[in-house]
Amino acid sequence: MTDAAHSPDPVGPIEPLGPLARRVRRSLNGDHPGETGTMLPPFIDHHVHLQLADAAPAVARGIAAVVDLGADPGAIATIARADGLPHVRYAGAFLTARGGYPSGRPWAPGGSVRELDPVSGDADDVRERRHHALSGPVEAAVDEQRRFGASVVKVALNAVAGPVFDRATLDAVIAAAHAAGLPVAVHAEGTGMAEHAIDAGADVLVHAPFTDRLDDDVIARAAAAGQAWVSTLAIHVRDDASVAETAIDNVRRFHAAGGRVLYGTDAGNGELDPGVNPDEVAALVRAGLAASAVIAALADPWPERSPGWADAGVATFVPDPAPADDDLVDPDAVARWLATARLVPTEELEPR
Ligand SMILES: [Zn+2]
Fold first, then answer.
1. Which residue in 96, 99, 164, 175 sits closest to 135, CA to CA?
2. Which residues does the UniProt record annotate as the domain Amidohydrolase-related (predicted)?
């Protein structure tokens, strides 16, 4: 064998960064002629509130697409239809128990909260109603979001802030959403609420559980069921170090159990650095995600199955220098590097 046989393929994947990374050079007619770096798929912030925070600064700093998880359904449908970046998927309104979070919160936009009474009857009654295609208030609320173009149904289970759905009502909401072809994404807050959502088969937790340290068997069950967790760790790093440690510990064990982690910041929740947030990235690395796993969390197509919706002629470009292989598990090194991500036209990037 010659030495050349041992050298890495210069246009192939960059192994330590995962199968999505390519070494590239910017073309000579662009803004930064000849600059070298890493090309990655378009990045998605899987938890934002576009009625509360303008997305333009995030787009300027590397975010191509966002998932809005709580808004007035008509208003978010209009925002999502606008031309240009970011591409938007959305939930529409928060579905919650009557008087439940976030009803009455000053930040909650008008029309963004849909309160529901408990369903009567047990799970068999609910199944029977579904079997006969009988539609109640739960089905109507889900259908309303779907008609406004929602890709996901958002449920708030915040026991700290007010009443929450009982199991029968949560089951009915999840059944109605799944019948409409929509996943259910749950805000779980307060003791037992993450377990409540996991037991009922919620598809996604919109915040990595942060109230309590979850039991290993609960985490194993969530991971085995294919549940995904949106990280939102930077808000805790900002607000409360011990809450951040609880959330990071839960994510560490969820990731180790094979759980699917989605990058998300809850942009619109107070002051956060827009774009690829270095605190979010650093916390994910501290939770045991290697750089390749952080990139996968940023590029995951959820709530769609394939990444095409976030990809319209733009790619993520992260200028050199990339961290050395040994630094790909260093939270600050990975965070500093990914925070320099920018969106560039794909045609301006040449393999090298
Ligand atoms: Zn949120």
1. 175
2. 39-295
